[in-house]
User: Fold this.
Amino acid sequence: MLAGKRILLGVTGGIAAYKAAFLLREFQKYGAEVRVTMTPSATRFVGTETFAALSRHEVAVDVFNEDGVSESWTKHIYWGEWADIFVIAPCTANTLAKIVHGQSDSMLTSTVLAARCPILICPTMDGEMYESPAVSGNLEQARKMGFYILEPATGYLASGLDAKGRLPEPEKILQTASEIIKKHKIQGPLTGKRVVVSAGSTREFIDPIRFLSNPSSGKMGIAMAEAAHLLGGDVILLKGPVTTPVPDRILVENYISASDLFELVKKHADADIIIMAAAVADFRPVTKHQHKVKKDNGMPSIELTRNPDILEWLGSRKRDGQLLIGFAMETENLVDNARAKLTKKNADWICANSVSEAASGFDSDTNTIHLITNYSETVFSGIKQDVAKEILAHIFDLNQKE
Ligand code: CTP
Assistant:
């Protein structure tokens, strides 16, 4: 039930911190990948090395690194986006109070603020503390704010009391976490919007073992799909025959040829936002031979025919309020050619990239995109995931709303 899921485990400074090590192992046993962030006081109960060794990953405690040079102070952003769920177990009364009031004095509390994934808080403390009006009030407030709360178990506590305050058994936390992952929807500017993104090359077969294609890896399209998902969109990724991994929180439908992609696009043509990042082949062989073309039968010639222009088809039937974002891959006259495509295909935006620009292109991890409308050009450069986020932030005007 947790296979392939990414779990951020937050450990705070209570005696039950040692149990978080068992919880981590349990998450892993079910196939989840776990990273750990601890509050400084949690490290007085269990060393970071324990969690680093078990998770096979560094453990984040302070926002600022001792060396002052690493980029690790931005981890709260990346880890918050990386995770499918953030489980804070145990969560002390102190950390609970900080969460409710938006404090960000450690990596753990900063990540709470930055996270887009669901957050499960497992309050764990002495029975009398748990019953106190302040803790009850904070728990109520946390629920209202959208945090998931797993009530503590009743039993023998470190103080000697037999009361409510124990960290629930790992199985209970596991089960709760997986139910939350299943039902949680990210709240963001695209919540409730259906977003369709196409990504990758197409294959146009000549015979059963040969095809015409291009080197598109799908990385930019997949980054766009993930960026839209992080903004709350209900994303469907139409993915070509590429090996680039897709985060498993994104729904995928696969295609091989341009005609397959066209059929999928027709099925989803009424989506609110359609992003055509696929590198669609413009031509396909007129005939696909049923058997392998043998070389001893002379030099074959391949007659080609035009594939449908899918973006143009979408543009010709665009409905009110629907947003069409196209891409353009150029080798010369980047902006002029992109603008011509914007008009011809009736798109709202064109993300133009040039194979000749440095650090851009088909299989690269980085890209430079010129975001084009009829009257504007904005340039974004960097790793494809960041560029994708910046493009959507620009299109949906998110930077103005801070
Ligand atoms: N596109 C499409 N269907 C096609 C070809 C392209 O939907 N048959 C879409 C691409 O997904 C992209 C945009 O149209 O969003 C521009 O693609 P590009 O390959 O840059 O340009 P083309 O339209 O093919 O034009 P040209 O080959 O003349 O550059």
